[in-house]
Write a structure and sequence with these properties.
Helices cover 50% and strands 14% of the residues. The chain is an alpha/beta fold. The protein folds into two domains: 3-183 and 354-373, Rossmann fold, CATH 3.40.50.2000; 189-350, Glycogen Phosphorylase B (Rossmann fold), CATH 3.40.50.2000. The strands form two sheets. The protein has a six-stranded parallel beta sheet with strand order 2-1-3-4-5-6, with helices on both faces. The protein has a six-stranded parallel beta sheet with strand order 9-8-7-10-11-12, with helices on both faces. The protein is globular and about 65 Å long. The N and C termini lie close together (6 Å).
Length: 376
Amino acid sequence: MMKVIIAYASAGAGHLKAAEAINNCFKQKYPEAEVKLVDILEKSTPLFKYSYIWFYTFMVRHAFFLWGLLFALSERGPLRIIVRKLSSFSHAVNTRSFAEFLRKEDPDAVISTHFAPPEIAAHLKKNGQIRSKLITVITDFGVHPFWLCKDTDLYIGASEFTKKQLMREGVAEDKIKICGIPVDAKFLKSHDREGLCKTIGIDKDIFTALIMTGSFGIGPIEEIVEALCKDVQLLVVCANNKRLSEKLNQRKLPQVKAFGFVNNAEELMAVSDCIITKPGGLSTSETLVMELAPIFISAIPGQEMGNVRALASCGIGVKLEDVSKIKKAVLEYRDFPEKLLEVKERIRRIRKPFAAEEICDVVRESCSGACGQRPV
């Protein structure tokens, strides 16, 4: 019987979503496998967990420039080594409970959708305390050095762009598999667009743009709504930004439907013609699976800019911050449907809707020899 640990960190929603997608796929495709989903922050010291989540949230909401600076400093030059060593020391001190958990479980595979678990697992494997295959699922199209760990057995990347970056960092080609970033199975279902339009309360014959900027609901959303509401239908997901959703609903702008946190993002995508979104790894992957033409705003410097560059290399998406330019881009899609079709065709060439299934297959194949030696 195959024993698998899927590890993530609950700082940001993307790492969790990717881990859940793999977990759910394993349970459906290989029900005989013993699979456990673990948040590394839940197995760390309380202060470390609080500080980690607080720091990430503060940076994303209030200090884009500082985050970008820290990302750049840790990506290249002598500070890259110093920052990595400090990070490794912090993880070693503060995540001993996670290390003990891995020692006790000694799974056939540790699948990580965050860069911290592989580092801890690799130290244990190097010292003979676990025998696991270490498999890292990179949840962005670009590759920050923090994702790299020399004892990793296999890297699973989003695209050829990811593969090239890994190889530039010295990773052997046979240690890289391009499966894509895993998304929830609900994004793979076919939808009755006309029926969904009736349920949501929009006109199926009017061009529709979806605005969705992650769990924080950040960016110039209100300004974009004001600029576009008379020209196209707008579905606006404000997520945890309750103040914004309440304000938009109170204003009752024409052709605008505002939502708070939603569990039916795939349905909103299915009735939309284009999306205005942050270029997070998971949201970008979901956008590609749903074949939506993306317009990127409010990109976090560093990893999200890497996602923008990766898609731009394929002729997909454009990053805009000026509201008038965002409006122009949306109206071009509305007025020139052939341009929209061209983007959708490019998306079809690179989208990887079955990433979770492919990852499960790769893990099972990678562990097949070890599983046969494990006592049941």
